[in-house]
Amino acid sequence: MRGKHAKTRKDRRGHKESFMQGVLALMFSQVLIKLLGLVYKLYLTNKEGFGDAGNAIYSSGFQIYALLLTLSSIGVPNAISKLVSEKESVGDHKGAHRIFKIAFVLFAFIGLIGTLLLFFGAHHIAYNWLQIPDAELTLVALSPSIFFVAVASVIRGYFSGRENLKVTANSQTLEQIFKTFLTILIVEIVAMLSKVNTVYMAAGATLATTLATFLSFGYLYLYYTSEKKEIREEIRKTTKRREASALSIAKKILMVSIPISLSSIMSSINKNIDSFTVVAGLKNFMSEEAAMVQYGILGGKVDTLTSLPLSFNIAFATALVPAIAAAMTKKDMETAEKRLSFSLLVTMLIGLPCTIGMALFAGPILELLFPNATEGTLLLQISSFTILFTVLEQTINGALQGLGKVMVPAIALGVGVLAKLVCNLVLVPIPSIGAAGAAMGSVVCHMVACAIVFIVIRRSIRLKLGFSKFIVKPVLATIMMGICSYAIYFVLTGILPGKLVTIIALCVAVIIYVLALIALKIFTKEEIFMIPYGQKIYAVLTKLGLYKEPKKA
């Protein structure tokens, strides 16, 4: 009876609040990981002897590694999770564990091939593909991590299929903690031993990534070992079922994981276009060293800063996949429409101010975070416009995957990648444009991809968003934010220290934006109630006279 009453209480709370609580939990995890990533990026860029040149070596090697990693492991956790959960839901624990064992062997083999390709191909990739010879050591140092990430992905997928998401979150967070700590430690040691040699320092930074992936895998393996007794007991109780062959299971795993991986593969190829074209194009009219610095700014500082807002939004994209899939299974179109419409609205409210704020304060932000390497204002200003398109694309892709349209995001991004390739090849070699051409190419890429997925989602599901609510009011709130914050920055410049002025202006921007959202009454009462503690928030707002429910747009 107690369990029944608990379930009833849970049902009364409704699915809306639990959906947003899941979103906030994912958001917290992703933000923490991004902030830890920012810590070591700030350290590397400001480190004497590293800077933009070190970022060029580090980023170029890392993008090749990311591509091989995508081919060997991305999509694996979701694929294994799906297949394992199907077996677990019918009580076939033995079948679920068999999928895990076959997947482990399969991706250990694939990961090993990826490791060997990167290790033995490092010289050819660095000299002929990247045209950055100094990246060879970086590639060698990274190569073992492909194997460890591939096998770790299988363990994560297995426990996710068993509805144990905590182990995945813990392993990812631990990996980033190890990566941040080890990067700083190893680079400091290498700097002392090599007398601040940039090439060795970059290799040391990537060695830290390899060690972090190994430690993360170690945590997962130890956790699996600790659960083995319980798993064996479940397998023992499993009723005898007909077992599929190992080959058919392997084929099924690949058939599920490959479509999920395609979008990530396209995203990785997108980043590698810069690796292959920027330095090569810039060398037509500047020295190789200067070209590497420009690429280092793009691959190091600009990518790091423009990807930060994605950590706030990725939670919506992740949570929408199961939420919309579940709603569609129940033929509950109303819930699917409400959740997608609300997620898109919040995505717009995250992406638009981040885009404009970063464009307005690009120079001051670079001076605040990278005092020893402040170049790149124009590149950051242009690249900031990728933020809005990328976050919208991210949320829509989650909805499309939930609807079962897994190929659409990959095709859309593939078209965008082709557009970026053309932009890079045409614009980067022009002396008056240079590296800015690559930044423009990224904007075009995500604008094209976003337009395609938006058209498809509009045809697939009815969006409950009016033009005023989705476009006019967010734009007005962003304009208010921009004018007030920049006015504060302009007035205080010369009176207070520059870094302090930037911090004050950014804080004012956040406060003004939130007040503008309240004043413009963008959210309905129902939408506020979708937020955890939404009823209390709404009660406070109405009591203060700051909010009254607006008429529906």
Task: Supply the key terms.
single chain; 553 residues; mainly alpha; 2 domains; 20 helices; 84% helix; 0% strand; globular; disordered N terminus
Helix content: over 70%
Largest sheet: none
What is the H/E order? Answer: HHHHHHHHHHHHHHHHHHHH
**Strand count:** 0
Strand content: under 5%
Distance between the termini: 45 Å
Number of helices, where a helix is a run of at least 4 consecutive DSSP H or I residues: 20
Overview of this structure, please?
The structure is a single chain. The chain has 553 residues and is mainly alpha-helical. The chain folds into two domains: 28-238, no CATH class; 262-464, no CATH class. It has 20 helices and no strands. It has helices at residues 2-13, 15-46, 51-72, 76-89, 93-129, 136-161, 166-194, 198-237, 246-282, 288-329, 333-360, 362-369, 377-383, 385-402, 407-427, 436-460, 467-492, 498-520, 525-529, 534-543. The radius of gyration is 24 Å and the shape is globular. The two termini are 45 Å apart. Mean pLDDT is 84; it is low at 1-17.
What is the topology?
Elements: H1 2-13, H2 15-46, H3 51-72, H4 76-89, H5 93-129, H6 136-161, H7 166-194, H8 198-237, H9 246-282, H10 288-329, H11 333-360, H12 362-369, H13 377-383, H14 385-402, H15 407-427, H16 436-460, H17 467-492, H18 498-520, H19 525-529, H20 534-543
